[in-house]
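Example (one chain per record):
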Amino acid sequence: MDLFLEIIDGPLKGTRTPLRDGMTIGRKGCDLNIEDGKVSSKHAFLEERPDGSIWLVDNESANGIRVEGKRTPEMELKAGSSFRLGRTRFQVLAPGDMAAEGLQTQVKGVFKKAQSKTTWRDTIVHLSERVIREAELKKSPSNKLAPFEHALRLSFIRGMQSGTDWILSYGPRDVGASSVDLPLFEPGLPAKCFKLLPQDNETVIRIEESMYGKILLNGKRFETAFIRPGDVLEIGNTQIQIAFET
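Predicted structure:
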């Protein structure tokens, strides 16, 4: 079973990382760097055992691994496990746990925007009107749908939606906090963050003006760019890797 490690407090709260053999955790120079003065430079590492289990192993750190307040040299990581390194707490999640939480977050966000409505009928009307508006926009000449030359696979490799894959066959597609079919759960994002659209047998990504400098492509700022396999988008704590389906 694929498992993910989530940071549940501190500056990187909400960051999720897939567990893998050899992954290192520490304050600097590690696969997962933690902003915590009580965490050693290379505090711990993950080790896959012959039976397929994943273990967190202390790397002779100053403060060790803490489970329910007790120090331990190592622990098996299973869905639901929790531990602390320094002052930072972690928990282990299965993909199903994240999918349920992500859906709950999305639903809460939608109904928060409809909270001025006082009846269920008003709430349903509010949501229906929103879907209709977005559908009408997609029908307009300037947003005529067309297939991508290659279907896109967007794989979330870090953040609240880690473990989620989107496969997109046509565009343009708007991505953002209020997108009906491509929502981002990263806290604090605007309704629209970027657009993916087919152009001259290529796939183009175009970011919203308000997001300039806040979305990075392969670690660099951009406004518009052609998408290539292996590209990585970074939005806050969220990272998305792009591949082409063949």
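Caption: The CA atoms of residues 8 and 130 lie 33 Å apart.
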